[in-house]
Design a protein that fits this description.
The protein is of the alpha/beta class and 248 residues long. The protein is built from eight helices and 13 strands. Helix 4 packs parallel to helix 8, helix 6 crosses helix 7 and helix 6 packs across helix 8.
Protein backbone atom coordinates (compact mmCIF):
# COMPACT_ATOMS: atom_id res chain seq x y z
CA UNK A 1 0.00 0.00 0.00
CA UNK A 2 1.34 3.40 -0.99
CA UNK A 3 1.78 5.86 1.90
CA UNK A 4 -0.68 8.73 1.70
CA UNK A 5 -0.96 12.18 3.22
CA UNK A 6 -2.53 15.58 2.86
CA UNK A 7 0.39 17.37 1.24
CA UNK A 8 -0.86 20.78 2.41
CA UNK A 9 -0.34 19.90 6.10
CA UNK A 10 3.10 19.01 7.53
CA UNK A 11 3.04 15.51 9.01
CA UNK A 12 4.96 14.65 12.18
CA UNK A 13 5.54 11.20 13.63
CA UNK A 14 6.07 11.23 17.41
CA UNK A 15 7.83 8.06 18.61
CA UNK A 16 7.81 7.79 22.41
CA UNK A 17 6.77 5.00 24.78
CA UNK A 18 5.62 7.59 27.35
CA UNK A 19 1.90 8.02 26.68
CA UNK A 20 1.78 11.30 28.59
CA UNK A 21 4.59 12.73 26.42
CA UNK A 22 2.78 11.46 23.33
CA UNK A 23 -0.45 13.16 24.38
CA UNK A 24 1.26 16.47 25.16
CA UNK A 25 3.14 16.61 21.86
CA UNK A 26 0.05 15.51 19.96
CA UNK A 27 -2.06 18.27 21.51
CA UNK A 28 0.60 20.95 21.08
CA UNK A 29 1.52 20.28 17.45
CA UNK A 30 -2.08 19.59 16.42
CA UNK A 31 -3.00 23.00 17.79
CA UNK A 32 -0.15 24.48 15.74
CA UNK A 33 -1.65 23.02 12.56
CA UNK A 34 0.39 19.86 12.10
CA UNK A 35 -0.88 16.37 11.37
CA UNK A 36 0.47 14.21 14.20
CA UNK A 37 1.00 10.45 14.06
CA UNK A 38 1.98 8.41 17.13
CA UNK A 39 4.05 5.31 17.80
CA UNK A 40 5.38 3.79 21.01
CA UNK A 41 8.16 1.52 19.72
CA UNK A 42 10.11 0.46 16.66
CA UNK A 43 7.38 -1.85 15.37
CA UNK A 44 4.82 0.95 15.46
CA UNK A 45 7.37 3.30 13.91
CA UNK A 46 7.89 1.15 10.82
CA UNK A 47 4.20 0.31 10.44
CA UNK A 48 3.32 4.01 10.50
CA UNK A 49 5.94 4.83 7.89
CA UNK A 50 4.57 2.06 5.64
CA UNK A 51 1.05 3.49 5.81
CA UNK A 52 1.64 7.23 5.86
CA UNK A 53 3.93 9.79 4.33
CA UNK A 54 5.88 11.58 7.07
CA UNK A 55 7.78 14.87 6.82
CA UNK A 56 9.57 14.73 10.15
CA UNK A 57 10.10 12.27 13.01
CA UNK A 58 10.41 13.26 16.68
CA UNK A 59 12.24 10.17 17.87
CA UNK A 60 12.89 9.35 21.52
CA UNK A 61 16.19 7.54 22.01
CA UNK A 62 15.16 5.36 24.96
CA UNK A 63 12.57 3.04 23.46
CA UNK A 64 11.70 -0.57 24.32
CA UNK A 65 13.23 -3.03 21.90
CA UNK A 66 15.02 -1.26 19.06
CA UNK A 67 16.28 2.06 20.39
CA UNK A 68 15.96 5.44 18.72
CA UNK A 69 19.56 5.58 17.52
CA UNK A 70 19.30 2.35 15.56
CA UNK A 71 15.90 3.41 14.18
CA UNK A 72 17.41 6.72 13.04
CA UNK A 73 20.30 4.91 11.37
CA UNK A 74 18.00 2.54 9.48
CA UNK A 75 15.59 5.30 8.48
CA UNK A 76 18.39 7.51 7.16
CA UNK A 77 19.79 4.59 5.13
CA UNK A 78 16.35 4.05 3.54
CA UNK A 79 15.21 7.66 3.13
CA UNK A 80 17.26 10.85 3.12
CA UNK A 81 14.27 13.18 2.82
CA UNK A 82 12.53 12.64 6.17
CA UNK A 83 13.66 15.01 8.91
CA UNK A 84 14.83 13.41 12.15
CA UNK A 85 14.93 15.17 15.52
CA UNK A 86 16.16 12.94 18.33
CA UNK A 87 14.88 13.39 21.86
CA UNK A 88 17.14 12.34 24.74
CA UNK A 89 16.78 12.48 28.51
CA UNK A 90 20.52 12.28 29.10
CA UNK A 91 22.49 15.41 29.87
CA UNK A 92 25.82 14.31 28.39
CA UNK A 93 26.80 14.72 24.75
CA UNK A 94 27.25 11.04 23.87
CA UNK A 95 23.73 10.42 22.56
CA UNK A 96 23.73 13.75 20.73
CA UNK A 97 27.00 13.10 18.93
CA UNK A 98 26.11 9.51 18.08
CA UNK A 99 22.71 10.70 16.86
CA UNK A 100 24.31 13.13 14.45
CA UNK A 101 26.75 10.44 13.34
CA UNK A 102 23.89 8.10 12.37
CA UNK A 103 22.17 10.80 10.33
CA UNK A 104 19.81 12.72 12.61
CA UNK A 105 19.26 16.37 11.71
CA UNK A 106 18.88 17.78 15.21
CA UNK A 107 18.27 16.80 18.83
CA UNK A 108 16.60 18.14 21.96
CA UNK A 109 17.16 17.23 25.60
CA UNK A 110 14.33 16.52 28.03
CA UNK A 111 12.81 18.49 29.62
CA UNK A 112 12.42 20.89 26.70
CA UNK A 113 10.34 23.97 26.03
CA UNK A 114 7.67 23.09 23.44
CA UNK A 115 8.22 26.47 21.77
CA UNK A 116 11.89 25.68 21.26
CA UNK A 117 10.98 22.30 19.78
CA UNK A 118 8.42 23.97 17.52
CA UNK A 119 11.06 26.43 16.32
CA UNK A 120 13.41 23.57 15.47
CA UNK A 121 10.67 21.67 13.66
CA UNK A 122 9.77 24.76 11.62
CA UNK A 123 13.41 25.41 10.78
CA UNK A 124 14.01 21.84 9.64
CA UNK A 125 10.83 21.68 7.56
CA UNK A 126 11.59 25.06 6.02
CA UNK A 127 15.04 23.93 4.92
CA UNK A 128 13.76 20.61 3.57
CA UNK A 129 10.94 22.36 1.71
CA UNK A 130 13.08 24.82 -0.20
CA UNK A 131 12.34 24.86 -3.95
CA UNK A 132 14.22 22.36 -6.07
CA UNK A 133 14.88 24.35 -9.23
CA UNK A 134 16.73 23.06 -12.26
CA UNK A 135 20.49 23.20 -12.09
CA UNK A 136 22.01 26.32 -13.58
CA UNK A 137 25.28 28.20 -13.82
CA UNK A 138 24.46 30.29 -10.76
CA UNK A 139 23.46 27.41 -8.52
CA UNK A 140 25.94 24.65 -9.41
CA UNK A 141 29.46 24.67 -8.00
CA UNK A 142 32.57 22.63 -8.82
CA UNK A 143 35.50 22.12 -6.46
CA UNK A 144 38.31 19.56 -6.29
CA UNK A 145 36.47 17.21 -8.66
CA UNK A 146 33.16 17.55 -6.84
CA UNK A 147 29.93 19.03 -8.23
CA UNK A 148 27.33 20.47 -5.85
CA UNK A 149 23.83 21.39 -7.08
CA UNK A 150 22.30 23.72 -4.51
CA UNK A 151 18.62 23.80 -5.59
CA UNK A 152 18.40 20.03 -5.83
CA UNK A 153 20.73 19.52 -2.87
CA UNK A 154 22.78 16.87 -4.64
CA UNK A 155 26.52 16.13 -4.63
CA UNK A 156 28.48 14.17 -7.24
CA UNK A 157 32.10 13.04 -7.34
CA UNK A 158 34.40 13.29 -10.38
CA UNK A 159 33.07 10.01 -11.84
CA UNK A 160 29.45 11.18 -11.64
CA UNK A 161 28.57 9.04 -8.63
CA UNK A 162 26.12 10.74 -6.29
CA UNK A 163 27.09 10.92 -2.64
CA UNK A 164 24.20 11.21 -0.18
CA UNK A 165 24.21 14.06 2.31
CA UNK A 166 22.05 14.59 5.36
CA UNK A 167 20.42 17.99 5.71
CA UNK A 168 23.00 19.12 8.23
CA UNK A 169 25.87 18.00 6.02
CA UNK A 170 24.36 19.74 3.01
CA UNK A 171 23.79 23.03 4.84
CA UNK A 172 27.36 22.96 6.14
CA UNK A 173 28.92 22.20 2.76
CA UNK A 174 26.69 24.66 0.90
CA UNK A 175 27.75 27.54 3.14
CA UNK A 176 31.43 26.67 2.82
CA UNK A 177 31.19 26.29 -0.96
CA UNK A 178 29.43 29.63 -1.39
CA UNK A 179 32.30 31.29 0.49
CA UNK A 180 35.50 29.45 -0.55
CA UNK A 181 38.74 30.32 1.23
CA UNK A 182 36.76 32.38 3.75
CA UNK A 183 36.70 31.46 7.43
CA UNK A 184 33.13 30.62 8.43
CA UNK A 185 32.51 30.85 12.16
CA UNK A 186 30.78 28.10 14.12
CA UNK A 187 28.07 30.65 14.97
CA UNK A 188 27.32 31.21 11.29
CA UNK A 189 27.39 27.49 10.53
CA UNK A 190 25.11 26.71 13.45
CA UNK A 191 22.53 29.23 12.28
CA UNK A 192 22.59 27.70 8.78
CA UNK A 193 22.27 24.17 10.15
CA UNK A 194 19.75 24.54 12.96
CA UNK A 195 18.57 28.13 12.95
CA UNK A 196 20.02 28.98 16.35
CA UNK A 197 23.30 30.41 17.65
CA UNK A 198 26.22 28.17 18.45
CA UNK A 199 26.77 27.10 22.04
CA UNK A 200 30.36 26.22 23.05
CA UNK A 201 29.00 22.98 24.54
CA UNK A 202 27.29 22.08 21.26
CA UNK A 203 29.44 19.88 19.02
CA UNK A 204 26.97 19.63 16.14
CA UNK A 205 29.07 21.73 13.76
CA UNK A 206 32.26 19.78 14.52
CA UNK A 207 30.51 16.43 14.05
CA UNK A 208 29.05 17.49 10.70
CA UNK A 209 32.42 18.77 9.47
CA UNK A 210 34.03 15.48 10.49
CA UNK A 211 31.38 13.55 8.56
CA UNK A 212 31.85 15.74 5.50
CA UNK A 213 35.60 15.21 5.59
CA UNK A 214 35.04 11.45 5.62
CA UNK A 215 32.92 11.79 2.47
CA UNK A 216 34.80 14.33 0.35
CA UNK A 217 38.46 13.94 1.28
CA UNK A 218 40.53 11.57 -0.86
CA UNK A 219 42.28 8.76 1.01
CA UNK A 220 45.69 9.72 -0.41
CA UNK A 221 45.16 13.41 0.23
CA UNK A 222 47.42 14.66 3.07
CA UNK A 223 45.26 17.64 3.99
CA UNK A 224 41.50 17.99 4.29
CA UNK A 225 39.53 20.16 1.87
CA UNK A 226 37.95 21.69 4.97
CA UNK A 227 40.56 23.21 7.26
CA UNK A 228 40.12 24.12 10.92
CA UNK A 229 40.97 27.69 11.89
CA UNK A 230 41.59 27.45 15.61
CA UNK A 231 39.34 29.65 17.69
CA UNK A 232 37.45 30.91 14.62
CA UNK A 233 35.77 28.20 12.56
CA UNK A 234 36.24 26.33 9.29
CA UNK A 235 37.35 27.15 5.76
CA UNK A 236 36.96 25.38 2.41
CA UNK A 237 40.60 25.51 1.32
CA UNK A 238 40.13 25.03 -2.45
CA UNK A 239 38.99 27.18 -5.33
CA UNK A 240 35.36 26.90 -6.40
CA UNK A 241 33.98 27.44 -9.90
CA UNK A 242 30.37 28.23 -10.67
CA UNK A 243 28.45 26.22 -13.23
CA UNK A 244 28.81 22.68 -14.44
CA UNK A 245 26.57 19.99 -15.81
CA UNK A 246 24.23 17.47 -14.27
CA UNK A 247 26.26 14.23 -14.09
CA UNK A 248 23.06 12.17 -13.96
Amino acid sequence: MQPTRDTTVPSLLVVDDDLVAQARLNAYFSQEGYRVLLAGDGEGFWKTLERHRVDLVLLDINLPGQDGLSLARELRARDGSIGIILVTSRSDDVDKIVGLEVGADDYVTKPFNPRELLARVKSLLRRSGEPRADSGSDTAFRFAGWSLDLPRRRLWDASGREVALTRGEFETLALLVRHPNEVISRDRLSRAISGHDWNPQDRTVDVLVRRLRAKIDAAAQPDSLITTVRGEGYRLAVDVARGGHDPA
